Each structure stands twice: as structure tokens, then as C-alpha cells.
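Re: the request from the purification team.
They wanted to know what the chain is likely to look like in 3D before they choose a buffer screen. I agreed to run a prediction and write the result into the notebook, where they can find it.
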Amino acid sequence: MQAQEKIKLASEYTKLLRNLLSEGQDLPILSYRPPIETRQYGIIISREIYLSKIDSFVTPTNDFFLRSHFPYPQKVILNQWKLSLRGCFPQEVDLSLEELFSFDHTTQVVMIECTGNSHSTTKDMKEHLTFQKILRLLDPSQWKSILAFIRGGQRHGMLSTGLYTGVRLHDVLKKYSPRPEARYLVFRGKDRGYDNLAHRLKGQKHHYERSFPIEELLQYDPLLCFELNGKPLSPEQGYPIRLIIPGVYGAEHVKWLEGIYAFQEEFHGYFMDNYYANIVEQEQDGNLIQVSVPVHALGPKSLVFSVKKLKDKLRFLGIAWGGIHPLSAVKVSLDGGRSWQDSELVCEAIDLSWTFWKYEVPLAGSNDYVLMPRAFCAHGQCQPLTQPDHLFYGNNAVIPAQVSIKP
């Protein structure tokens, strides 16, 4: 499907949604916390979307969620910008924007969800403390972000869907292939800074870097993007180039991309081992040890974003996605998971976007309703009912939505 066809289809889906939203009285979802509006607290820059304000298939650029660990890079001079290819490449390469733009362009509709969206509460945070996280607690520049987390509890607004235009990473790597022994690619952003007190005392700044096994990366269709929703990336969204890997969590979508490094050995950078990774136990030489496992692939997930009270019924509207695989269904339960019914998919996904669904239930006077939505993908995966205790990041467990009907 060509870019213009995708834009037209997204516009049609928006009209369908707005027709549904135009009817009835809005009811607040009592079990969802409001989003954090603060754009910067400490060194971390963050913004969530209002789920209750979703009214379009593609998220407007100014409403896109944000998550950055360091301030935006300043003074990007386009005719001096280079994308460096280093490490296990036959030779060092520095690609200019003009050279990068010479590859075929493509546009994909992509839903991005922050790896920490719907993450655990402060109780679970205590159970996942590491030495590096304790050092962050001691750094005064982090206190505002930690306080926001403690006050916030579980939120669900760190996600958006956008039209991303760029060139395929696989096309670039086909021309500039890593050497056969290369097994990992590391993507480095231009943003850098101190993340905890020890780094600050040592004067040790870190770039934001994420790594991917080359073999695993072949399952995806990564883009080196320069446009969002038909316009050049804004500074806060990664201008001039960012990595987009449809089907994986937001931590992998490195902004302000300045380098791709190929390595033979697994990369253990600071943001690989200490962020957006779950601590799990693995057996080694007959002993159980704790290891840090990066969170990559999205799983099926669904959220309610609107509840409408009509004359004789309630209408639940939601978003859902299948992860790396297409969404096949969203089932809902109003009795705590004892029985499940099919919702109606309002539209289909475009590429690996979200899609909309609705479910209507007859009103039964004054009552509380708790609806549990559960997404299923075409590959047979479904949302787990609960999040395993050892998982802090990548929470795709069922999230109940509670509303109350008063007399």
C-alpha cells in the first residue's frame, strides 16, 4: 500500500471513530490514573497522551508521547551531519543526509509504546532495585523524576501511532554490509549525559545506546526515519534521523541517531543492562544467577480509552494491537474473567499500528462496571491476565477499566 493510500485509510478510520465519539455522555475511567503533563523533571523529559482525548487514528505530532533521558542535542548542522558505520564493517563509512536520502523512501504506520508504559507500581519497584538504580536514587538531578513515579502509580499514556517516512535499514546494510563475524548492531544517539551520582562524580557521560542481535533484527523492517506525519522530525522526536523498528518497544527507537556499530560480542552498554531490561534468573554451571534481559518485542495488548453512556446502554471504545503479528480479536469480560465475549473491531490495523474496537452492554440501573479487554494476535498469542512477578518492563497484562453509573 502506497503512502497516500495509507493516509486516506487513516482518515476514514478517524471519521468512523469520531462518529462513535459524538454520541452519548462521557464517563470517567476510575481505574486509570491521569497522565503526567510535566515535560521535564530532572534530566528526564517525558510526556504522556490523554487516552480520553484520542479522536484520530494517527496521533497528532504535537500530542505524541515523549521519553528522553538527556536534553535534546543542540545545533544540528545538516550539511555536516553524518551517520557513522563503525566496528565490524569492511571499512568505516560516514553517510551524509544526501547519501541516506538517495535510498528508496517508504512510509509505515507504526504504534510505539514506551517499554515502561503500564509499568509496575512502587511496590514492584522495590523488588527490582539494582545497585545502579540505588545510585540514581542518590543523584539529586533524578529526585523529581523519582517523586513523579512514586506519586503516579500505574499509567497507560506512553504510546502513540504515527506515519513514519524514511529508508529501510536493510537497504543501507545491503550496500554497506557488516563483516560475516558481526552478530550485534548497536545504535547510538547523539544525546548524552550523566544518569546517576557516580557518573556525575567521575565526569563519565553516557550516550543513549541500544543493541539488537542481527539475526533477530532480520524479523523486523527497521527504518531510518526523517519524517513524522508528513513533516521533518521535530527536535524532540529525534531530528534529523531516528531509528524506528515496528513491532518492538519504544526504548529501541533511538532518536538523534549518529552511529551504527557492528560487534561480534554481545554489547553491555549502560542503557542495555540498567534500563528497559528485566532481571531474571538463569542457570549457569548448576547455579541460579540473575541476569539482565533486554525487552524487545511488543506483545498483544488492549486499553479502553472512552466509555459513553447512551440512552439504554454503555459503549466501551478501545485501542488494541497484536505486537509484531496482526491483531485477530479483542475479547472482553465483565465478570472478572469468568466468561469472555467478542468485541467488534471498528477498523483494521495499517502496517503495525493500533486499531479501534467497541463493546456495548445494556444499562442495568445504578451500578459499577469493570470491563477487562484482552487482545489476541493472528499468531496465537494473547494478553496474559496478570504480569509475572519478575517482569518490571514490557507489561502487556490485561488492564481493567472501571466506570460507575450513579442514580
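For the purification team: The domain at 301-405 is CATH 2.60.40.650 (Immunoglobulin-like).
Please add any questions underneath this entry.
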